[in-house]
Amino acid sequence: MSDTVTTSPVLSITGLSKRFGGTQALRDVDLNIAQGEIHALVGPNGSGKSTLIKILAGYHQADAGAEARLDGEPFELGSDHDRLRFVHQELGLVGELSAMDNLALSRGFARSRLGNIRWREQEHRTVELVHRFGLDIDVRRPLVDATPVQRTVVAIAAALQGWEADQGLLVLDEPTAVLPPGEVGKLLDIVREVRRGGASVLYVSHRLDEIFQVADRVTVIRGGRRIATRPVQGLTPQSLASLMAGEATERSAERPKVSATSRSGESALEARELTGGPLRGLGFSLARGELLGIAGLAGSGHDVLPYVVTGAWPGDVQGQLRCPARSPEWSDASRAARLGIPLVPGDRAAHGVIADFSVAENLTLPLLSRLRTGRRLLDGRHEAALVDDWVERVGIRTAGRDAPITTLSGGNQQKVVMARCLALEPEVLVLCEPTAGVDIATRLQLYDLIKEQAAQGLGVIVSSSDVGDLLALCTRVLVLRDGQVVREIAGEAITEPTLVHAMEGTE
After folding, report:
1. Domain residue spans in the chain?
2. Which of 3, 120, 124, 188 is 20 to 30 A from 14 (CA-CA)?
3. What's the CATH number of domain 9-247, 3.10.580.10, 3.40.50.300, 2.60.40.60, 3.40.50.720?
4. Structure pTM?
5. 431 - beta bridge partners?
């Protein structure tokens, strides 16, 4: 496992470790990025990639013992250094502002000696910078009017302001995650242009095809450890995916594997020709008591499907849905909300809980009609009994039902959201990133809860970017790519290498 470089490294890190409580996110990771190279960083979800990038950016602090050098000089990880710049997946742009204003926010406006803004000079500076990357846009228009690739290029231009040739390292974290397939090539051309300008690039991506198109070398991390650093030229997509997944499937051994429950044959939910966001004519069926996984890389549509089938997707939706136990008739997917399928959303803070409400208020929010008396007043005793029952059943650790939801840990907040959905006594439950931001102990408790509900006949859809969730829970997994189902994996065939290869298209 060689990590030698033919030129002096622009960035060298040795012994990088990071522990969060009982979780070892990174363990003695070494990383060397050569001058003028595009170096890819890959690994499955939960491997430690994000933690490494956040330590470089100063969001997390490395544990003691790590050493780093930038351009050969000692460098304190996380310190603000002009030769190390970032474009994060969220881009950090203000959509309501123009490209010109967004660039000025990061590096300041062009000003006269008296402090007045030189608008003409600022506009010329912005145009010159974006034109360097072949981007022809009106730099005075709000970025909400721009395409995803145009916004990404603006973010890269903002990061590179003030750089001279042969300077520094640009870190690109999942830069193509939100791009349509047709625009990925344009972004890769931009990355090559950055390298031609003299900078090195650390390129983080799940998409192996991009790695082979643009990278010189690739570092694989898994389970918080560096597995290998290899020249891309000596790899194949299959061999790289195997390094990422690990043929021994250590992760699956860490989590309880649910026994493959036979499908009852009685459908809980059926879908056909679903189209919305990246989804393109997608169809599937979910049996009663089945734990159906939805997997895919960013942009595949795996994280959109939960919102489409529950009526929570904000965009246009086409296709049909049917819950046979409710009605034999097909319903238009644009009216999916009428089916009453509850959703545990992927972003708990934004869409799962109401920060100003108590535990009880968050839990009973969709149940108010059931808790009213004949005078349409809330039955406080009924509400208290219901909340106390679910707090005990789900194992929510709280100071009391009236405690603010914000006093609970992330895992216990997730249990409140889960209890709220289950209290509706649904026939189908949809989970999007069910264990995001929860500790290992709570994760296992959620697994047990979900499996218990499925054993009682609840049909469950689990959409997760964490392969561990799919390994621990699902009896069948649908793998999505470009908005369509490209592979169905069932029973004992559900392993980490199989899932990774299927998502990457390297079977």
Report:
1. 9-247, 254-504
2. 188
3. 3.40.50.300
4. 0.63
5. 344, 462
